[in-house]
Amino acid sequence: MGIEEVTVADRIPLVDYLVLDDPPHLTAHRCTACGATYFDRRNACASCSGGAFENVDVASEGTLRAYTIVAFAAEGVPVPYVAALVDCDGVKVRGNIVGVDPDPAKLPLGMKVRLTTFPMGTDSAGTEAVAFGFTPATTTTGAPA
Amino acid sequence: MSDDVWILGIAMTRFGKHPEADTVDLAVEAVQAALADAQVTMGDIGVIGAGCLVESGAGIGQRVQKQIGQTGVPVYNVANACATGATALRTAIMAVKAGEVDYGLAFGVEKLSGAGLLTGNTRDDDGDTWTPSGRFGAVASLDGRVGTVAMPGVFAQIGMEYLHDHPYAGTPLELFARISEKNHAHSVLNPLATYTKRLSLSQIMNDVMIAYPNTRPMCSANCDGAAAAVVVSDEVKRTLSFDQQRRAVKVRASVLTTDPYVDGCQVLPDVNTLTRDAAEQAYEIAGVGPEDLDLVELHDCFATAELVHYDNLGLCEPGGAVDLFESGATWRDGSMPVNVSGGLQSKGHPIAATGIANIFEVCHHLRGEAGDRQIVGARLGLAHVIGLGSACAVHVLESTAA
Prior knowledge:
heterodimer; A: mainly beta; six-stranded mixed sheet; four-stranded antiparallel sheet; 10 strands; B: alpha/beta; two-stranded antiparallel sheet; 11 strands; 34% helix; 18% strand; globular
């Protein structure tokens, strides 16, 4: 294996709908017939059964529609953390709220949030995986607390 | 001849720990009790709908037949998440309604004591190298990294989303804990419930947090249990004894829905639209409205779920679920008693049994046999169950006894 290959693939997104451009952003598959958007690989559209999709960038700013503070989880999942549903300009996105205390008082529903990315570890081949979350838009964007 | 279908017999085991009984034992206990309640035998039954979600590949219907009656009739082993039991019952109802059989049997059973999180108690290993896989091209397990897959947190968000759409000035934890307080108070009167202890609001709020705002007593209890029902056609019911006819409960509506596409439904499960659809269809078929109901058993898998289903089942004005609860209407002495069994939070939630057990509770009241917890004069009731994925069943049931 050549060194070049390692350097080319030195970062990889946690999910394929996270694009590690500058700035990083999320992308979605939009049905060209009805406009329904999806993050997963599609066979067809669940809304209209159409089979044609285009990739669209998802807004990186949104509002907090719902959250939970997970305090008990499967072994291997660090707790507590904030799992949330964010509305990014009409596209609903699942993600964690990071960079804020897991405290209901810090998580008002409707709060403005923005996308952030952070490293989640390097594998045995030296590749760094990059995860995403949302951080309150009123505070400095950066790594999670 | 009408194509009405009647519940002739129905029973449930005590929900809770049954270390001495295996899955088949529990199912047999419920089935034999339902047959005895109906005053019929396995030889009368023309079709069997059967469910056991955690053993869904193991043919629970035939395993029960092999203990109590291999009559050669068709068995439909069904799996539909938490709506499995109701789906089994609806399968039997459809066979009777189609005129294929006179009598149908349905049962659901589960052994779940100590099961923990139903989505798994250990996160998948990340492996040696980040390798994209699955439909999101994920290089690692997403649980905990992109939200949560565990039910307490999923349903917590469903409750919180309701408070986003219908702004609430109070503290979510306290609101949902008060719903749980109601159901635990109701459970004191139900000898078949897993937990029958009244809990104070502060006990519930200060118990172990699972996924805010759901603390442990606000989550449905994993437990063992089974429930079973015998249904009969209208034509055959008319030939039965006075006592059988008097206790028969009419199925005014039996509806099963899945979740239709709505924006965002594949991001956070939408338990609302399919419940609304099922309720609207059931009310239309039954020719009744929510105001006609004397009691409701709804799927309070978490305290946060109960709130949204007040609205989904039309028990309140759109957006008025908090007001309905705060009016006291859903307590057993209120105008719209909800979950007088104690609900899943106290009675327990042996998954495949739940969708028949909630119908048992409604029938028990409609027959005037609910003892200390009887809702006096109950004539019309609704049972609701939802399984994520999703499937929703709504049954409207009526007593015709004088």
